[in-house]
Design goal:
Elements: H1 2-14, H2 26-38, H3 42-55, H4 59-75, H5 79-92, H6 96-113, H7 116-129, H8 134-142, H9 151-180, H10 186-199, H11 203-219, H12 225-241, H13 245-258, H14 263-279
Helix pairs in contact: 1-2, 2-3, 2-4, 3-4, 4-5, 5-6, 5-8, 6-8, 7-8, 8-9, 9-10, 10-11, 10-12, 11-12, 12-13, 13-14
Length: 285
């Protein structure tokens, strides 16, 4: 089956450029894009790889076509392509933590590629005409080096925080409403709401959603280690959004205990080590 999909993808590429809407699933789109990429036919690889990103069901799948697209844009000095990819990705981030991580990763990647000054210049120009341009603010702030306060720096921080609080609050309200529907997914909805409330800076509502999540989950009889880990992870990030690092670490440790062998547990161990380094306390072993 894999050979058939790959063969079809190669034939599509050989026939010319392929429109993203022609693909029905991730495998076909990624196979087509990868085949063109391997041949060095970057122009033909772009649309299938874009389609693969949209069709990917999880972040782990989305990462592979994303890497190839970034490589193409960097090798061809396609600043517009890099910016368009980042803009779409950072706006689509479903948590503040993910959006900030996306911006920091983007800035780091472009500094390594040698294209950062061009990219940075485009975003600075955008902010002059649209001061609340979210992707531009995310990049400019992620690129800031430690230094004295300035009027522009303070203005950008203030505008960015206002946008984030508004977005996180709207998201938290929607997630709380989903949890209130009372279906089996309520613990997860409330845990996600807790993270959003924490990232919005609302401690009271963060704790209320977290308590609802844990209370409902404890009343459910079915065992689901991955779900328990996910719930605790979201709550931990809620505490982190509030700057309550000790409580965040405790929640992350509970998440690891729930499902210690899952890949997510390793990511949380690294996160705990990062937080402990900031606090100057012993790291996990």
């Amino acid at each position: 089956m894999r050979r058939i999909v790959l063969s079809c993808a190669i034939l599509l590429c050989l026939g010319g450029f392929v429109r993203a809407e022609e693909f029905k699933d991730f495998s076909a789109a990624y196979a087509a894009g990868s085949a063109a990429f391997s041949k060095g036919d970057y122009a033909a690889a772009i649309e299938p790889l874009k389609a693969a990103m949209k069709l990917a069901s999880i972040d782990e799948l989305r990462a592979e076509p994303r890497k190839k697209l970034i490589t193409i844009y960097q090798k061809t000095n396609n600043v517009d392509g890099l910016i368009a990819l980042f803009d779409e990705e950072v706006v689509a981030g479903d948590t503040r933590a993910k959006r900030l991580e996306t911006a920091q990763s983007f800035v780091s990647d472009q500094k390594k590629s040698g294209l950062f000054e061009k990219v940075h210049g485009v975003y600075l120009a955008r902010l002059k005409t649209k001061p609340d341009d979210y992707p531009a603010l995310a990049v400019v702030l992620a690129a800031l080096e430690p230094g004295p306060a300035s009027a522009d720096r303070e203005k950008h921080h203030r505008t960015f925080e206002q946008l984030e609080i508004k977005r996180c609050t709207e998201q938290a309200e929607k997630l709380d409403a989903e949890g209130a529907d009372g279906d089996d997914g309520a613990p997860l909805w409330y845990a996600m709401a807790a993270q959003a409330w924490g990232e919005a800076g609302n401690g009271a509502k963060m704790e209320a959603s977290a308590k609802k999540s844990l209370a409902i989950r404890s009343s459910q009889k079915r065992k689901d280690a991955f779900l328990d880990q996910t719930i605790r992870r979201h709550i931990g990030y809620g505490y982190l959004g509030l700057g309550r690092i000790d409580e965040a670490i405790a929640s992350f440790e509970a998440a690891i205990k729930a499902d210690p062998d899952d890949l997510g547990a390793d990511l949380l161990r690294r996160k705990i080590d990062e937080l402990r380094r900031k606090k100057g306390v012993p790291q996990s072993k």
